[in-house]
């Protein structure tokens, strides 16, 4: 089961192109198993499974892999064709060069270009023509998909050193901390991801059968389910686990398990734009949201499952995380919000 959640912002942003094309966003949400009423909660979140399904629904209904936001339509199957080409490459550098050559076949072009300087590599967004992307969703998606596809092909996350954007920090900019896990720069001269050049020589380890399996749910899963296994955040989430009914491990124990000092680990987490306390809080929040989607589990039981001895403490914490009580959240899930 995936217990990661996605902010309401990204749900609504993903629908903007479909709405522009005249599609009914409520119908799209319902088809993806998301209650439109839930989105009336300002700090609402949906499960990564629901978000992945919504992406697939939008692509199917619009017949456009740019979801109505690009300078042109990207017909269904464009991404899969690019993947079929790059899976035969030897290294990550070849993957990014081949993907760029493929994207240039379409006009206007929407792509990312690999630049190498010294011991650094950079993927720079190249978009020709005018786009309809008021919430930056298309631009964010391109960055995320190219980065995570490359990571999947070489079987290890490409650790980012910097993410930069040629636009001002958006209202949802705080969410970028959990997407890119690296220093962020807004109002830059380009939109790009920088990483160590050493990743470019990493061999492609996936084959065609694996790619066929991967394409059953991608690129939707690339957007909704980050591979955090190689980030400090992801490793800590793994060590904490999902059973909060027993005492949570302390920071010193975590540092010891990760073979590092507490001071170094704090510094690493700061570089990933987070903290131990935030990791624990977000894990509990996401687990609580996961359990609240199961109406057969009483709210008091959920409080205990996510590590609260007193239901009242859980209610206060959940309201701080989401702006509403667990009961109101469950009503939103059911579509019972007044």
Automatic annotation (TrEMBL):
GO CC terms of this entry: cytosol
Question: Does the UniProt entry include the keyword Transcription?
Answer: yes
Query: Is DNA-binding a UniProt keyword of this protein?
Result: yes
Q: Which UniProt keywords apply?
A: DNA-binding, Transcription, Transcription regulation
* Pfam families listed in its UniProt record: Arabinose_bd (PF12625), HTH_18 (PF12833)
Record-linked Gene3D superfamilies: Homeodomain-like
Identify the residues that the record assigns to the HTH araC/xylS-type domain, covering every copy.
Answer: 234-332
Please give the InterPro entries that the UniProt record associates with this protein: AraC-type_N (IPR032687), Homeodomain-like_sf (IPR009057), HTH_AraC (IPR018060), Tscrpt_reg_AraC-type_HTH (IPR020449)
Domain of life of the organism encoding this protein: Bacteria
Protein name, entry field: Transcriptional regulator, AraC family
Give the organism's phylogenetic lineage: Bacteria, Pseudomonadati, Pseudomonadota, Gammaproteobacteria, Pseudomonadales
């Amino acid at each position: 089961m995936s217990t990661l959640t996605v902010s309401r912002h990204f749900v609504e942003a993903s629908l903007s192109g479909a709405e522009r094309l005249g599609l009914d966003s409520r119908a799209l949400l319902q088809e993806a198993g998301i209650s439109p009423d839930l989105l009336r909660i300002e700090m609402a979140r949906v499960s990564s499974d629901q978000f992945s399904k919504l992406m697939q629904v939008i692509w199917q209904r619009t017949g456009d892999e740019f979801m109505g936001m690009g300078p042109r339509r990207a017909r269904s199957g464009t991404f899969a064709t690019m993947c079929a080409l790059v899976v035969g490459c030897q290294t990550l550098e070849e993957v990014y060069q081949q993907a760029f050559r493929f994207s240039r076949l379409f006009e206007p072009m929407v792509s990312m270009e690999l630049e190498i300087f010294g011991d650094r590599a950079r993927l720079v967004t190249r978009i020709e023509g005018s786009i309809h992307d008021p919430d930056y969703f298309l631009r964010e998606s391109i960055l995320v998909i190219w980065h995570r596809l490359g990571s999947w092909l070489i079987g290890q996350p490409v650790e980012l050193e910097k993410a930069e954007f040629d636009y001002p920090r958006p209202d949802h900019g705080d969410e970028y901390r959990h997407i890119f896990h690296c220093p962020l720069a807004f109002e830059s001269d380009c939109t790009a991801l920088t990483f160590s050049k050493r990743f470019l020589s990493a061999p492609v380890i996936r084959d065609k059968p694996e790619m066929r399996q991967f394409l059953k749910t991608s690129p939707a899963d690339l957007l909704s389910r980050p591979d955090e296994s190689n980030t400090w955040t992801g490793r800590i989430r793994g060590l904490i686990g999902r059973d909060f009914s027993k005492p949570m491990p302390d920071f010193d124990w975590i540092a010891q398990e990760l073979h590092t000092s507490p001071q170094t680990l704090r510094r690493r987490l700061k570089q990933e734009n987070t903290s131990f306390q935030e990791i624990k809080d977000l894990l509990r929040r996401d687990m609580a949201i996961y359990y609240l989607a199961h109406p057969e589990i009483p709210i008091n039981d959920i409080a205990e499952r996510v590590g609260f001895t007193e239901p009242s403490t859980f209610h206060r914490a959940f309201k701080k995380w989401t702006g509403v009580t667990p009961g109101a959240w469950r009503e939103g899930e059911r579509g019972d919000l007044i």
